[in-house]
Amino acid sequence: MSSPNDSHSGSDLLPRFLASVTQFVSSQPVVTLWIIGLFTLFSALVTARFLTFKTDRSDLIDSNSEFHQRWEEYVEKFGPEADIVIVVEGPNREAVEQAIDTVGAELRSESKLFGSILDRVDSDRVVSKGLQYLTPVELEKIENELDESQEIIEGDWNLAGLNAYSRRLEQLLQYSISQGDPARVDTAINRIELLANSLHSFLLDQNEFESPWPQIVSRTELVSQEAKSEYQLTPSGKMGFVVVTAQASSNGLTGKSESLNRLREICSETAEELSEVEIGMTGIPVLEADEMERSQIDMRNASLISFGGVGLILLLGFRGFRHPSLALIMLAVALVWALGYTTLTIGHLNILSVSFAAILIGLGIDFAIHYMARYLELRHHDEEFHRSLALTSRSVGTGIVTAAVTTSMAFLCATFTDFLGVAELGVIAGGGILLCAIATFTVLPALITLSDQNLSPQRLPTPFQGTLLRKMIRRFPALVTILTLVAIVIVGAQGFRLADGEIESIVEYDSNLLNLQAEGVESVELQERLFQETDGSLLYAVSISDSIEETRIRGEKFQQLDLVARVEDMASYLPRFPASETNLLIQSIHLRLSRLADLPETFPEINPLAVGQTLESLHNLVQSQTSPSADEAETRLDETLDIISTMELPQQVEILSAYQGAMLSALHAQLKKLKEVSDPSPVTPKDFDPAIHRRFVSDEGDWLIRVYPKEDIWEEKPLEAFIDQVRSVDPLITGTPIQNFEAARQIRNSYFDAAIYALVVVTLILLIDAISLGPLCVTLIAPLAVVGFTHFMSQHAGEESNIAHLLALYTIVAILVAFVFDFESTRNVILTLLPPIAGGFLMFGIFAMTNIDLNPANLIVLPLILGIGVDDGVHVTHDFRLTRGPYETSPSTINAVTLTSLTSMMGFGSMLVAAHQGLVSLGLVLVIGVGSCLFVSLVTLPAILTLIDRGRSQKPEKQVPPQKTEEPPEDEEDVVTIAFQNSETFGDKPSDDQ
């Protein structure tokens, strides 16, 4: 029985057009193939000349996105090159430092390949400006000290002798006591104690000299030491790092670059030369290159397995070699067309859209299988060759076109999403599917004509028919329907839970890109070890400021955040106080020290008696004080005097003269060192190693702040918390963590939105295909009033309307209206959507039961399963609509749906052998998804249709009078349906290509 809206009872413009095209192609196969060959050659040439590849992850993001515009601004100012981290591990600090020096020297010798080499912090030019790191108060103190010693600086070294210095200390203490200034008293006593300890130690051992002069440049010495060469090592000294950027960008689809290749050679050669150390590489460029290289190897291996597996399935399904070969040739031509189409529309492939070939292989071959199965079925019913091709196009052509359009629209809906990578994949895959459908009606009939036109039906293969399954469904449709629906509900429900009154998915989304990498990849393991050893991440957020003052303020705010481990910026390398506050003081100090005289060849003669008297006076003066320091100084002075008194005069002169010489040399050395760090010219970023200042200050004067996380932000929850915190300080912050977070959220939302949009569009297309023009207009126009009213009420309430909700509302109302005007056709539309909806529900349940999560690699399962499921549903329901008499799924439909699903499962399942975990997860979820849709399409849906057919066959008004076999049918299509009705099997006829 047929419904009123079956294709054969309504307008047959599309079937007639497809039949006409097929008749022309089969009558002129050589001419057709020549035209197709020229068009294919043109597509290949255009592709080879103009198609490019974009392997950067940032190419997947819409350039209009605010967060991506901030990233591009950062890249424009500071360069696109991310740091490569060379990790050196050895038994001790010396071995690690030697390896770092060797690697650094090799990198610097190849400047065309490597830039911004940071193996040591080497800023010698900053040493001469060390005073600028002191506070104004400390500088004033130094200036006062120099003011008191001005005569000594200018050459009167007699004033710095032992006796003279002792008298100065005595006068300083007397004056401080008279002024009643405890602070100055303590200062004087500390200096006396320093002199007493120094002299006492020297008298005991002339090889042990300690300077008696106060260290007025101690902070400067510290700064100078920090500014000298320093390796980047862990506290243990057994792990060190060299940071470098690659100058040569990646070439081609593999993501490899000359810089990375050479860098691996340098690391390998150095590790071989210095056998004690191990050298590895990590960093974002290395992680991405390793991922791309591994995935390319895996895809190549999977393609070989897929090709062989699909060929084997077609061989078993069609029981011969010839017809599977024709289908694969047609698919190859369509793929070349798709490449040309991609070149003309998009112009490039990215790391997501490069998978379009796998998608088209999985979906495009379906059209050829459906076409070939029906053609062979008709030939086995002794139809004439050219007539069988025309009837094939008339019977399954509508289903192929409907499936192609709905599947194409499912992908094209991705263009409405925010994620550019998904949108481009949607355009390429959507257009490619339509090209596969065109090739099915042009290339395939021409190839079949050249192959089969002189063959008798007895020499053609007999495809798989699914006889047992068809009989089971025909005999027990109610039982099969109930059992399968119950199973789908029970299993599918495992994927969801009820929490706080809302239904939530148990299947989670894993955004950690490291979990997609192959196990055992060196760069991933090094990154994890590096994080553990240093509590540092390779990922960091980037904040850009306009001035050093703003950089310091913002850096301090970042450092106060709980989730921030450390902050790096150029301001931390520069003096804390601006030159306007310190420059005059430093100029004064520099001017005084510029007069520093050399030490005299002979030092002032020493007078032991005078020295003893002065030290005795100091002893008595200190003895009058009661502080601990005074007690210590008094004790040391007493001991010193006792030692001197035991010596003969010549010995006293000799030892005290030696001490005085060492004392004057120490003062001169201290003043000289102070002079060396008193350069008054301001410290600038260019005083530092270019590898440092280029990373933190742009040529335009922008200042960069790197904010490192305390936790591992490859995981989504720590990443989101970290981003929330750093955005509280700088809402415009960017960097790889923000890019990863926003891109992962965009790709997740884009796939889900694309699936929703596609479901809405596919439903509307199916309604347009099923309902006649008059009711269709009402069906499409009536819901606009409801949607418009809902939108108006939302606006009136001050709420923003959700586009997805409005589209869903429009679709639901359209279906309800369509049910009123044409119940049977609308019911068929809903049943067509049963495989993707019920199959998807079943798929999520299996995911939950097997602990499979969605991730950025396998989210493509959503539009793919919708396309594959709708494709199966369209062919099964079209088969139902074409059937006259009691319904039973036709052998060609069973054969085609089974083969298309199995070939898709084989194609995607071949990825399970991959080492790249992203490809493994992609293959696994697609095998489960396609298998779920296959189960619903072959078992549940035919059983439901069989029940519907039995119900409608009991109504007398819908019975069709039996046709007279002696009268020819009025329509060519009736020949097909009558033949199907009168035959259950094709007959087992031998094939010449078995």
End-to-end distance, in Å? 37 Å
The major β-sheet equals: 4 strands, antiparallel
- In total, the number of strands is 14
Uncertain residue ranges:
1-10, 219-229, 957-994
**Given the helix and strand composition, which structural class is it?**
alpha+beta
Tell me the number of helical segments per DSSP (H or I, 4 or more residues long). Answer: 36
What does this structure look like?
With 994 residues, the chain is an alpha+beta fold. The chain is built from 36 helices and 14 strands. The strands form five sheets. A four-stranded antiparallel beta sheet has the order 3-6-2-7. A four-stranded antiparallel beta sheet has the order 12-13-11-14, with helices on both faces. A hairpin with a 2-residue loop joins β9 (496-499) and β10. α1 (13-27) crosses α17 (420-452) and α16 runs antiparallel to α33. The chain is elongated.
List the helices and strands and how they pair.
Elements: H1 13-27, H2 29-50, E1 52-54, H3 66-78, E2 84-89, H4 93-108, E3 114-118, E4 120-121, H5 124-127, H6 136-148, H7 150-153, H8 162-179, H9 182-204, H10 218-227, E5 230-231, E6 239-246, H11 258-273, E7 278-282, H12 284-318, H13 322-345, E8 348-350, H14 356-380, H15 385-395, H16 397-412, H17 420-452, H18 467-475, H19 477-493, E9 496-499, E10 502-505, H20 522-534, E11 541-545, H21 548-559, E12 564-569, H22 579-593, H23 608-623, H24 628-645, H25 649-676, H26 690-696, E13 703-709, H27 716-729, E14 734-735, H28 736-770, H29 773-796, H30 803-821, H31 823-832, H32 834-849, H33 861-882, H34 891-909, H35 917-953, H36 972-981
Parallel strand pairs: 1-8
Antiparallel strand pairs: 2-6, 2-7, 3-6, 4-5, 9-10, 11-13, 11-14, 12-13
Helix pairs in contact: 1-15, 1-17, 2-13, 2-17, 4-11, 6-22, 8-9, 8-23, 9-24, 12-34, 13-14, 13-17, 14-15, 14-17, 14-34, 15-17, 16-17, 16-28, 16-33, 19-32, 19-35, 23-24, 28-30, 28-31, 28-33, 29-30, 30-31, 31-33, 32-33, 32-35, 33-34, 33-35, 34-35
